[in-house]
Amino acid sequence: MSVKPVRPFSSNFRWDGVELLRYKEEGSAPFRDVTRQVLFEDPSIAAQLRYFEVSPGGYSTLERHQHAHAVLILRGRGRVLLGDTVHELNTNDLVSIPGMVWHQFRPSGDAPLGFLCMVNADRDKPQLPGADDLAELRIHPAVAAFIGI
Ligand code: MN
User: Fold this and answer.
1) What is the pTM of this model?
2) Of 11, 41, 82, 134, which sits with the fewest C-beta atoms within 10 Å of its C-beta?
3) Which candidate in 97, 117, 137, 147 is catalytic?
4) Is the pLDDT of residue 8 over 90?
5) How far is the CA of 69 from the centre of ligand 1 (A)?
6) Catalytic annotation on 117?
7) Superfamily, domain 13-147
8) Cα distance between residue 108 and residue 88, in whole Å
9) How far apart are CA 146 and CA 126, in angstroms?
10) What is the enclosing helix (H) or strand (E) of 146?
11) CA 109 → CA 54, 66, 70, 79, 147, distances in Å?
């Protein structure tokens, strides 16, 4: 991305000149209706700031990894699974996701859930839950209902 000092916010949570990307490679992991925009990346800062948006009925990948996420909800409401707990999310809430904690985002209601996510530029690949992991997650009824698998 070429460096422009100011990128105006346009309607519908797009920023001038920022490309709307696929969340992940199709088929690489389970997810539904998620887009990604890379807002900041600079070799002098070992981090990336992305904006993700999940459409109503969609969900991010249920995953875990060594790297942490710092998340700020920018748009809508939703819920996040963190380990064995499902948390309600409102606009402007902050979410800290430590390393190796299972996590997944889902919007609530008819509106998209949009969030900023800061992450290491160099990071390990997300792990997907195996059958044993899913069985352990499903011990908690609220988690079983949330992940829906
Ligand atoms: Mn993640």
Assistant:
1) 0.94
2) 11
3) 117
4) yes
5) 7
6) yes
7) Jelly Rolls (2.60.120.10)
8) 9
9) 20
10) helix 141-147
11) 12, 31, 24, 11, 16
92 alpha carbon – ligand 1 mean position (Å): 19
pLDDT for 69-92, tens place per residue? 999 999 999 999 999 999 999 999
Q: Where do the structural domains in the chain lie, given as residue ranges?
A: 13-147
- Match 């700020």 to its residue by tokens: 72
Q: Which secondary structure element, helix H or strand E, spans residue 143, and what is its range?
A: helix 141-147
Rounded to the nearest integer, the mean pLDDT of the chain is 95
Query: Sign of the CA dihedral 76, 78, 80, 85?
Result: positive
State the distance from the centre of ligand 1 to the C-alpha of 11, rounded, in angstroms: 27
Distances (CA, A) of 27 to 9, 64, 128: 31, 18, 13
Q: Which two tokens stand for residue 83?
A: 């380990």
What token pair was written down for 30?
């389970």
Distance CA 78, CA 87 (A): 9
pLDDT score, position 3: 75
SS3 of residue 11 by DSSP: coil
- How much distance in Å is there from the Cα of 64 to the middle of ligand 1? 6
